[in-house]
Amino acid sequence: MLILDKEVSKIVFDPEGELADTDKSNNVFPKEESKTKLDEFKEKGE
Fold first, then answer.
1. What pLDDT shows up at residue 46?
2. Which residues are CB-neighbours of 30 under 8 A, at least 6 positions away?
3. Which residues of the chain have pLDDT under 50?
4. How far is 10 from 30, CA to CA, in rounded Å?
5. Contact residues for 34 (Cβ-Cβ < 8 A; gap 6+)
6. Which of 2, 5, 7, 27 has its CA 20 to 30 A from that of 44?
7. CA distance 28 to 6
8. How far apart are CA 45 and CA 37, in angstroms?
């Protein structure tokens, strides 16, 4: 548990990518919406 004077706006776990992690999408709080490669492909086709 953390006791802080301010509200936490963002937490990034392993920002340098030094740990073996197959799913880096869950290393940020609050969760950031990210586009999939399929979404990017669809946008290029428009």
1. 66
2. 10
3. none
4. 6
5. 25
6. 27
7. 18
8. 13
pTM to 2 decimal places:
0.53
Element spanning 29, H or E? strand 28-29
Place of tokens 């086709």: 45
31 contacts: CB under 8 Å, gap ≥ 6: 25
Q: How far is CA 31 from CA 26, 38, 41, in A?
A: 7, 20, 23
Compute the C-alpha angle 12/13/16, nearest 5°: 90
DSSP percent split of the chain into helix, strand, coil, nearest 5: 25, 10, 65
* Contact present, 30 and 8 (Cβ < 8 Å): no
